[in-house]
Amino acid sequence: MLSLVAASLYFLLIHFAVSGTRWRDAAVQRLGEGPYRGLFSLASFIGICWMAGAYARAPTIETWGVLPRLRPLMFAVLLLAVLLVVIGLSTPSPTSVGREGRLAAGAAAVRGITRITRHPFLWGVALWALMHLIVNGDLASLVLFGSLLLLALAGTRVIDAKRRRRCGEAWEAFARSTSNLPFAAIAAGRNQLGPALREIGVLRPVVALAVYAVIFALHNRFIAPLT
Fold it and tell me: Which helix (H) or strand (E) holds 41?
């Protein structure tokens, strides 16, 4: 368990203390954007592998226990999470790595899923982590998925702060047309759901459904049965 705690703290530290902060800006200035991204990706990969290995070896210490009755809800929420992740990854956005230049397009940069939330990938990860945390009901899951949930939710704020610091008014113009919290901009009348659905199209959701089916099958075979 100590290894899992240490791995989770390491993973949170490299993101909160480096990524999105002025330490990152200094590192990029010293190393260059490409080398910095490479080193940070390597550090993140090491952290993920460490967390996964430590979680697999951690003892089972129950908290509230397994909640099988929530599985229908879990399946629905995880489908939403996969939709957010797949559609988010396939939609160019100024919040994506290396896509800051899209801010120059102004309001035209707000398209598809970014009309719903400017951080679809991170919200998908947050929902995935939240459901795994709730349904598993043990201390190791609380540490692992709680860390990932915290990172995903806080990551939306970190990215916003980084873009605001580096892009100024161009970022503010983009942010006014969208929202961090899903559907908040639409509820406030700053955007519309109809154009978002039309721009997302059919292919992205179909791919997401296929990814969901593959994850379901692999999870049943290699990790734990979901049925």
Answer: helix 33-57
Integer angstrom CA distances of residue 21 from 18, 27, 79, 107: 6, 10, 33, 27
Nearest to 46 by CA among 58, 34, 54, 56: 54
Q: Quote the CA–CA distance of 158 and 113 in Å, as a whole number.
A: 20
User: What pLDDT sits at residue 134?
Assistant: 92
pTM above 0.70, yes or no: yes
Amino acid, single-letter form, for residue 103: L
| Low-confidence residues of the chain: pLDDT under 70 | 19-22, 98, 101, 220-227
Q: How many angstroms from the chain centroid is the CA of residue 220?
A: 23
Tens-place pLDDT, residues 61-88: 988 888 888 888 989 999 999 999 999 9
Q: What are 151's two structure tokens?
A: 């990172």
Query: Apex CA 149: angle with CA 81 and CA 199, to 5°?
Result: 30
Whole-number Å distance between alpha carbons of 197 and 200: 5
Q: Are 11 and 51 in contact (CB under 8 A)?
A: yes
